[in-house]
Design goal:
Shape: flat
Largest sheet: none
Helix content: over 70%
Distance between the termini: 59 Å
Number of strands: 0
Number of helices: 13
Strand content: under 5%
Structural class: mainly alpha
Radius of gyration: 29 Å
């Protein structure tokens, strides 16, 4: 039976002491036992504090993300010159939804008030937000956009200055029109006044690498476009991603699938030539699906 090396050493010393009656080794045995004990104790202490640090660090990132979210909500609410009852009601509803304690509720309310400042540093805050989201959870970008767009239309009509702020957000966070329209289409079910026609300035389309000038309710009106839509749907399904997922998530899913069907890996598993050929076709389809999705969101 295999014994852990440390215990094996202790067992050897103990056996030597008993067999040869060399009790002078007892002090050495005690020192080794104490050394092992304190080593294990220190390792456990470091592990405990590392876990605790990670917990509080993650918690702090989430708090910072919400803080910037509420600041920009305040900035958007005040952009039209005043904060309406609808703005306040929506903010309070969102505040209750995130389920914070009393101390953090007050903290977020102060963040909202700070965002109402005329000289609010929007660009630097967006830079910080981009860092937090990319480090903590890239999927939070959709939640952030959903909140800001929904709030912008809460008074039924999108104000010109609010529209300008939204376009700055889209451009600075490098959000594609495809992603924005997916969010807008979901929000329409809750607020009929939300629409993509009022959302963009003309120069926003020039900012994008690809111009989606024909993307509206009739975008897939002819047979060719219907086929494109079906192909795109299949592409998302093949990669195992959603329309709401950002490009980073899609890219990760793509590389994960490529790794799964890599020839070297399959050969090592003893796949036959026929199975390898099928895997090759699968890999080609994965490439096509990824490139199709990339074409629409880039």
């Amino acid at each position: 039976m295999d014994i852990y090396p440390g215990y094996q050493l202790l067992f050897f010393i103990y056996k030597k002491i008993i067999d040869n009656h060399e009790y002078k080794y007892f002090s050495l045995l005690i020192k080794i036992i104490l050394g092992v004990f304190f080593t294990v104790l220190i390792n456990n202490i470091f592990y405990f504090y590392n876990q605790k640090y990670q917990f509080f660090y993650t918690k702090n990132i989430k708090k910072e993300y919400l803080k910037i979210n509420f600041e920009i909500m305040g900035y958007i609410s005040k952009s039209k010159g005043y904060v309406s009852k609808h703005d306040i009601d929506y903010t309070m509803k969102f505040l209750n939804k995130v389920n914070l304690n009393k101390k953090n509720i007050i903290f977020m309310q102060k963040a909202f008030l700070y965002g109402k400042n005329k000289n609010y540093p929007l660009i630097s805050k967006l830079n910080y937000l981009n860092f937090l989201i990319s480090y903590y959870n890239p999927n939070l970008i959709n939640n952030f956009l959903k909140t800001q767009i929904e709030l912008s239309f809460i008074n039924k009509k999108l104000h010109f200055k609010t529209k300008k702020i939204l376009n700055i957000i889209f451009q600075h966070l490098n959000i594609s029109i495809f992603d924005i329209l997916l969010i807008v289409n979901k929000l329409k079910y809750h607020n009929k006044y939300i629409n993509e026609k009022d959302l963009f300035f003309h120069n926003f389309f020039f900012y994008q690498k690809k111009v989606y000038t024909h993307y509206d309710h009739n975008y897939f009106k002819n047979k060719k476009d219907i086929n494109n839509k079906l192909a795109l749907k299949k592409a998302y399904k093949l990669l195992g991603v959603k329309y709401s997922d950002n490009f980073l998530t899609i890219k990760r899913a793509y590389y994960k699938l490529l790794s799964k069907y890599h020839p070297d890996k399959l050969i090592s598993k003893g796949y036959s030539s026929k199975q390898l050929e099928k895997a090759k076709v699968k890999t080609q389809n994965i490439h096509k699906a990824y490139n199709m999705i990339k074409k629409y969101i880039k």
